[in-house]
UniProtKB/TrEMBL annotation, chain A:
Part of the high-affinity ATP-driven potassium transport (or Kdp) system, which catalyzes the hydrolysis of ATP coupled with the electrogenic transport of potassium into the cytoplasm. This subunit binds the extracellular potassium ions and delivers the ions to the membrane domain of KdpB through an intramembrane tunnel. InterPro entries: KdpA. This is Potassium-transporting ATPase potassium-binding subunit. NCBIfam families: kdpA. Its main location: membrane. It is a multi-pass membrane protein. The system is composed of three essential subunits: KdpA, KdpB and KdpC. The gene is kdpA. Pfam families: KdpA.
TrEMBL record, chain B:
It comes from the Bacteria. Belongs to the cation transport ATPase (P-type) (TC 3.A.3) family. Type IA subfamily. It is a multi-pass membrane protein. The active site is at D316. Part of the high-affinity ATP-driven potassium transport (or Kdp) system, which catalyzes the hydrolysis of ATP coupled with the electrogenic transport of potassium into the cytoplasm. This subunit is responsible for energy coupling to the transport system and for the release of the potassium ions to the cytoplasm. The system is composed of three essential subunits: KdpA, KdpB and KdpC. The chain crosses the membrane at residues 36-57, 63-84, 222-243, 263-286, 610-628, 640-660, 680-698. SUPFAM superfamilies: Calcium ATPase, transduction domain A, Calcium ATPase, transmembrane domain M, HAD-like. This is Potassium-transporting ATPase ATP-binding subunit. ATP binds at D353, E357, F403, T404, A405, Q406, S407, R408, M409, S410, K421. It is found in: Cell membrane; Membrane. Its EC number is 7.2.2.6. Residues 120-211 form the P-type ATPase A domain.
Amino acid sequence: MMTAFFWMLALFMLLLTLSVRPMGAWLAPLASGTLPGRWRAFDAALLRRLGLNDAGMGWRDYTLALLVFNVLGAVLLYALQRLQGDLPLNPAALGAVEAGSAFNTAVSFVSNTNWQGYAGETTMSYLTQMAGLAVQNFLSAATGIAVAFALIRGFARRESGDIGNFWADVLRIALYLLLPLSVVLALLLVSQGVLQNLSGYLGYTALAGHGQTLAMGPVASQEAIKMLGTNGGGFFNANSSHPFENPTELSNLLQMLAIFLIPAGLCHAFGRVVGDRRQGWAIYIAMSVLFVVAASAIAWFEAQGNPLLSALGADGGSGNLEGKDMRFGIAGSSLFAAVTTAASCGAVNAMHDSFTALGGLVPMLLMQLGEVVFGGVGSGLYGMLVFAVLAVFVAGLMVGRTPEYLGKKIEPFDMKMVALTILVTPLLVLAGTAVAVVVAPGLAGLANPGAHGFSEVLYAFSSAANNNGSAFAGLSANTPFYNAMLGIAMWFGRFAVIVPVLALAGSLAAKKRLTPTLGSMPTHDGLFIGLLIGSVLLVGALTYLPALALGPVVEHLAIWATH
Amino acid sequence: MSHKKMVLPLLDAALLRPALRDTFLKLGLRAQLKNPVMFVVYLGSILCSVLWVQALLGQGQAPAWLAGSIAVWLWFTVLFANFAEALAEGRSKAQAASLKGLQKSTWAKKLAAPQRYGAEFAMVESFDLRRDDVVLVQHGDVIPCDGEVIEGIASVDESAITGESAPVIRESGGDFSSVTGGTRVLSDWIVVRITVNPGETFIDRMIAMVEGAKRRKTPNEIALTILLLALTLIFLLVTVTLLPFSAYSVNAAGSGEVVSLPVLIALLVCLIPTTIGGLLSAIGVAGMSRLMAANVIATSGRAVEAAGDVDVLLLDKTGTITFGNRQASTLVPASGVSQAQLAEAAWLASLADDTPEGKSIVVLAQRLTEGAGGHLDDGKVGRTALADLHAGLTPAGASFVPFTAQSRMSGINLDGRQIRKGAADAIRRHVEALGGSLPRSLLQQVDTISSRGSTPLVVAEGAQVLGVIELKDVVKPGIRQRFAQLRQMGIKTVMITGDNRLTAAAIAAEAGVDDFLAEATPENKLAMIRDYQSRGQLVAMTGDGTNDAPALAQADVAVAMNSGTQAAREAANMVDLDSSPTKLIEVVEIGKQMLMTRGALTTFSLANDVAKYFAIIPAAFAVTYPQLGLLNVMQLASPASALLSAVIFNALIIIALIPLALKGVRYRALGAAELLRRNLLLYGVGGLLLPFAGIKLIDMLLSLLGLV
């Protein structure tokens, strides 16, 4: 079982690593804003035609543009859901989405979370899926990447007042990166049997003799960007465990690769733009190490199975298969779970709620680490770079210099922004969970009592505040309480992080870039990689250890205590 | 003229008493508010004390003895941190006070009216001189205070300030009228009007500032405080939310009881970075103290921090890389003159010359003659005369001719012989006046020596020119290794000199500097600093002269010599009381050490938390979920002892680390990668492991004493 998993993991990491360089080469000119020759002419003409330009913005203007853009996106998406009953492309004749759910969903897709309190096939019309959700899948991904670009520029530029042009960034990312990749991936998925039609739902008589309905729709086009943009919002309720979304082992592999494709490539693009590729590889290796360990841990815990079931002879030594599709098994499900929670994708091909206690702890922890192990498109890199600044700040002092990263001195303002960034999500997760496990409407959503119920709530807030979007399915979250609480967690988990990151980008861009000497702390070697991993783990562990102890850890100890 | 270092013992009884007093004085709200991390502990202590009283009244959640013990140890935590700061400040003040004693008083000849040469003078102490007093400074006197020459002309040895050994001429009026306190008149006399009052000098003002010590936090300290504050907030969040989590768990498990407030407060204090929080300001104060111990006063902590960051050191050649005074290295006889003859004349001419150059000529002449099997003592000068010479007296039948600004020669008249040494043109005029001439071949030798960057001194007896003495710049021993060390630390050294390129290159190669600036002028020095800075490097330099001021102001770290001019000292951000040109290297090391200490203790503090979790989490929740007892990896005796052990360890570690905070972690001249590896291993891994042992040990002690 573990052997099959390790082969799959090895193949996955090999393909991913091979993609890093070409993806980096594709992303770097977009990040640095220096498009090659003919492309630049086309780009200039396009911007002119649209009435845009790529004049540099200060970080405040950039932030303002980003916020306006995203608030407008949320308002439009909300309106579309509420009005869908009166709009075309609605063969299933679905009515307006309930207000609380529509708010939650609008925030969810704009914040790149794609938490879904609703079931797609019974809630959203084709128009809402295509013109609302899929569009936000593109735009929220482009927003995240734009922020990462801004931060990369912050490191690369010297004494500069601007961090790029938000409008040009979003346009270029969507048009030159996400769209072509999505077209290719959608076609590949169609080749594997993923649906792509606008037909009405099909009725048929099942073997048992009673009537059933097969939901249809433009699935492949949405599926591609769902993965590439680390969005994760399924067309269907069953997400990537639905055979029409993820039919084969090959489609499963393609989906997993698609999730990591841009986050991994961004690492290399970062190295290219700052002029030292080793810096990018160091980040990539740190992420990879954390990922490989986490994925292996999930597979290992799942392979151990549930002793209570084993005692009944229920699993025949095959490990914990509850909530898993036999097409993917423990190997394919564990790897997918690690990928989707390491990146802030949130698509699932197995039910995380049914994982063993510790097998479920790992995905939760991956989110709680701040979605920096590859993480969301853009957000993974900027989150990891914030951790790099933190690691450099503490350890850098130990080489006897005031801390600097890539030649940029880390000063009080930068540290303020770093502090805000690392404060936001623990606040949302811990405070949100604390409220939910005390008040009646929060407790009402719990399907399981005891420690597992606690884990479900903790998972939900971890997922929302870190913009992952996957769920421990046991929680009934489509209630006014959770729609509101999680909606708030998603919004601030996204934008209360982006604002200080952009401020950091602006502050860094304005600084001199010091020349590294033998006396400067190297940030490309094994020691730094270890340090970065250590910082991510230490901050994550220190923040969430007590909560995890009261959830999955207790559950695990209770189950295994008798065996 | 280096002063002995003032090394204060770590614990001095005289310092202890005021430190203890301040420890309690700092318990005031205002003092506590300055340090956000310790303020949280302070609030926790107050809250815990209230809960203790409540428990004593029989209404508490936790047993009274537990709440009481926690409260007591939390107060200790606060007091220990106060003590660290008070001790550091006490030491710093004591040093500042002793620095004042360093300023030396000299005697001055204060002129009475009409304040002109020839007027009556009274001997007064230089400290008693006021502005506009007028003093007479004669041959051999030290100029008592900064001032302006109003009458006379004299050659002045300013090597203590400028490092240049050649005496300079000071005269009334014009550009050469200002004189500096501490320099010495070598010949003739001048009348000087004093321009500053005592106690108003730059140094006086700086010491006052250090003493008054409203210490401002440095940028890095502020940034670190922000990080510590953020961590404190996170841990506050973690502990506060544990209350509802615990309530939920008790409800769900149907057993145990909700975690009590004293336990949560104990957990909070253990988790927040109290170790670094409590020692941070002590580290900063101790950094300034170490600098003062090296007789350097910094105008701000910011400058000390910047010193750690320096990439380029600009070092003056003279005094730093080479000895300030040139030394005689070879004797070149004129044609037809033997080496011994020249050596003897040079020796005689220099016997009464107590400048370092003169002494070096004596040493060289003796060595050369003895090497050739002869000696200089007998015959030539009578034995009594020799004894007189050694006693510094003029032997009978001999008269010394001192160096004067007019003649620019010195020498001796002995038994009818007239021996002179001096600059080539001065000697030429001298021998030509006597009917002799300077041979052409010797003139060539003089030029060769000059082109090597050495100084030629021509020796003549009567009208006959005997030869040339080469006074050479000698590179200090060990300086090459020092530069190699600096290179390893990533610091580039640049030699600044007024010499021509060829000479500079030769000395630069010999000393092993990375680069040099020849024919340096204030303008090209400034341009060079700007050039380095534009390439993203931080530049440090020392300076003394007024024309150094622009460069000092431009440099990131600027150390002015105490003996330097007012303008130079105002432009610098540190003043070296010893006026030692190599001090810059020490300053850089002190800066680095301070930053390293800060980083090491932060890392240590954070790494400590892991063990504390393993102590407290099982202790706090084992009644609710007995399974969590498995996390009690240290096998601590009971939940109460686990809790107390963690809190006690947390308090004691502050006391234990005070010596490290005050002394600073050891600095080694290594590359950054190697330094980081060592320190991470020591303070990171050590910080991870040590508390496991420490908490276990305290727990065993508590159990042994039956306290829990």
